[in-house]
Amino acid sequence: MPGSPTFYIGGVECAHRMPGGRIAATEASPAEGPQVSIPIKCAWDDRWSLVKALRGTCTLNPDGLTFTRSAPYALTDNPRLVCVSTGAFEYIGSAVDSAGNLANPNGYAVVPANFSPVPWQFDDGDPSGQRDASGEAWTVTKIKPSAEVYQPPGGSYWLGTFPSTTPLDEASIGFLRANVEIQVTRKFHALMNLGAICDSLGCVNSTTMQFGDKTFDGDGGGSDPTGGTLLLIAAEASEPYFDCLGNPVMDINYTFLGRTVAGWNQVQDRTGAWVAVNSKADGTGDPPFPSFDFTTLPR
What we know:
This protein is mostly beta strands. It folds into two domains: 110 residues; 158 residues, no CATH class. The chain is 5% helix and 35% strand. The strands form six sheets. Strands 1, 2, 3, 4, 7, 8 and 9 form a seven-stranded antiparallel β-sheet that branches.
């Protein structure tokens, strides 16, 4: 490419330097994080291939049931800054070719590429490290307080100003027990996967899951009622938006309630001990919440 040293992005030959030896890159560091804008030159016919390599895409696979994401291009001197948008293309070249065609394939395109950090990662990692609390790619995790209302088990007694021989009336009082609400947003989805969402709602985790430095034990597929400490209570899809090629995508948000004292299929008996709940006295029936392997949910 004339006029400057070249490099490659996604197999596309590119250059930073503009005609006349000018480089028009800008950098700033506002409150929302560093921002860099770099005009990148490529052959006119390669302009959309360059945008695809810069922005990343999300496309359905031939089976129609799965999809593939490609990560956006990151700056080599600061990999935390990825391409989040591109500006209007500028055409450089003669107005027409020798045959009089207006779109001269021998011209060049200048594509303004804008870089900034994003609040998710593009590879899996340690949940307890300085990454998203889930440790998973394309994921944003938020945590906030929550609570459940519970009632003392039948046969409990009033204490304090009441005689200890006076039993509580059935369902006469409720208390709050603090829990944690975990919202997990999967970014850049090409499918809603409604079947998997319906199968998992109202279930507890069968396998161990970790968020940050906290581990939530699984129930082993129903074999361990002391586990199953995450309960999926909601899932919703965002309004569709589009990748750089116009493919419709969406974000999927899962909401979990996490218990830290016992599994969701346990309650306290009148002695204060946590015991399993089952539809049959011998424990061969069903618990209140079935189990599901949440690691199989679309990511």
